[in-house]
Amino acid sequence: MISAEMTHTALSLAADIEKIQKIEIVPTLLDVICHSTGMGFAAIARVTADKWIACSVRDDIQFGLQPGDELEIKTTICDEIQKSHCMVVIDHVAEDEYFVNHHTPRMYGFQSYISFPIILKTGEFFGTLCAIDPRPALLNNEKTIGMFRLFADLISFHLQSLDLMEQSKLAVKDLNRQLSNSMDENRQYHFISNHNLQEPLRKIRLFSDMLVTSSENNNLEKTKEFALKVNSGAQKFSMMIKDLSDFSELNQPSAFIHVDLNKVVADVCTQLNLDRTAGGEIIVEPLPAVHAIPVQMEQLFYHLIHNAVQFTKPAQRPKIRIYTVESDDQLQRNGSTSGLTEIRIEDEGIGIEKSQLEKIFDIFSRLSYGHPVQGAGIGLAYCRKILRNHHGEIKAISEVGKGTTISLLMPKA
Fold first, then answer.
1. In Å, how far are 182, 254, 382, 391 from 245, measured between CA atoms?
2. What's the pLDDT tens digit per position in 236-291?
3. Is 248 helix (H, G, I), strand (E, B) or coil?
4. Would you call 91 exposed, middle or buried from its count of C-beta atoms within 10 A (0-12, 13-18, 19+)?
């Protein structure tokens, strides 16, 4: 079984160093340690199973370490402390039965040493508060040990406070994101109720009145014609309600798992029979795995690839490329940090006017594309909703007559 200490990334270690440097009292603590013990070097170190990294340093003996510098973990006594979680105190190495022949004092040339484990409030080992000096010092006493214990606990408290503050900021940021998304969807629902849904209802009322009139006049042909139009309007209204219901169901909680996008795209291409699309070409470069809801990933790529095929230039064959772009962006969620991946779906279709690019993600958006297309105008709205569910983003870049590129930003697995 791999130890939790082995899972620390360079990014998380750098964040831990930054946290220590954000604690304003740390320089004062190190000054007090040096003055009260007479020792010339004091430090806070981030220690894992394979790393010893200086976070903050007070160095009056030219030991040569700066914040961010590393020591080989196996050359330090902190290596033993991170395993035992116990303090080590040495007044005089030359007179200590255990440490007189220890490789660490011999390598670094110190005679006095004290190190206390810093244990986070979660119970996780963070690192050590330590001090060394080439001269002997009186350290193994209640006053010095009590001071180090207090300071180590104080550092742990401040680290917990910083974590809580960061979690609060992330929670506020996430709530703001949810509020913004909710306001945007409410705007769309308001527009739909006042416009999109009113149109089929208006036609139903209109043709119903005509149906009544033709029936009273015993005009059988007109009665049939208006009855069919009433039925058509009712079907359209019913489909719009169903689309809205399906859209709202995307809010239902679902399990996030490891999803291989290569398989998702392959399955979608099979559903759309792209291999038989009049000699069309789809180039799918290797795609990453993501932490996602599988069925929503399938819906996402179905709509995007279907759109790319649907809006091909007249008399031309569809040409689509799906590929990954490296992203340095990071996502913090639920107390952890994950990398983001950017995936692009690129076509050479009819393109979209720049003024219309944001509208295409609204529910029931029906833009003028220059040639008749089928669909209710909800596919890209689904896509944006799915990306929002995954703390991601969707954007479109397009030029009329040259094609469209859809960019997806989402967390890696």
1. 16, 17, 12, 22
2. 888 878 777 777 777 777 788 999 999 999 999 888 886 555 567 889 999 999 98
3. helix
4. middle
Contact 114, 139 (CB under 8 A): yes
Burial of 48 (0-12, 13-18, 19+ CB in 10 A): buried
Alpha helices of 197-293 — where are they, by DSSP H? 198-216, 220-249, 261-271
Candidates 391, 382, 397; CA nearest to 411 is 391
Q: What is the DSSP code string of 3-26?
A: -GGGG--HHHHHHHHHHHHH-TTH
- What rounded mean pLDDT belongs to the chain? 85
Q: Are strands 330-333 and 393-399 parallel, antiparallel or unpaired?
A: unpaired
pLDDT digits (tens, 9 = 90+) for 16-56: 999 999 999 999 999 999 999 999 999 999 999 999 999 99
Taking the alpha carbons at both ends of the chain, their separation in whole angstroms is 21
Q: Is 204 left (phi over 0), alpha (psi -120 to 50) or beta?
A: alpha
Instruction: Record the tokens describing residue 192, joined without a space.
Output: 């739909």
HSE-CB for 324 with a 13 A CA cutoff: 17
Residue 119 forms beta bridges with which residues? 125
The three-class DSSP label of residue 176 is helix
Classify 210 as helix, strand or coil. Answer: helix
CB 278 within 8 A of CB 317: yes
CB 110 within 8 A of CB 118: no
Q: Angle at Cα 236 formed by Cα 232 and Cα 237, nearest 5°?
A: 115
Does the structure show a pLDDT above 90 at 107?
A: yes
How many C-beta atoms surround the C-beta of residue 344 within 10 A?
Answer: 16
Instruction: Taking residues 398-404, report their average pLDDT.
Output: 89
pTM over cut 0.90: no
9 token code pair: 């990334």
Of 71, 81, 75, residue with least CA distance to 89: 81
Q: Are 219 and 210 in contact (CB under 8 A)?
A: no
DSSP state string for 297-318: HHHHHHHHHHHHHHTPPTTS--
- 21/5 Cα distance (integer angstroms): 21
Q: How far apart are CA 63 and CA 74, in angstroms?
A: 18
Residues in a beta bridge with 90 = 113
Statement: residue 191 has pLDDT above 60: yes
pLDDT exceeds cutoff 50 at 184: yes
Furthest-apart CA pair in the chain: how many Å?
119
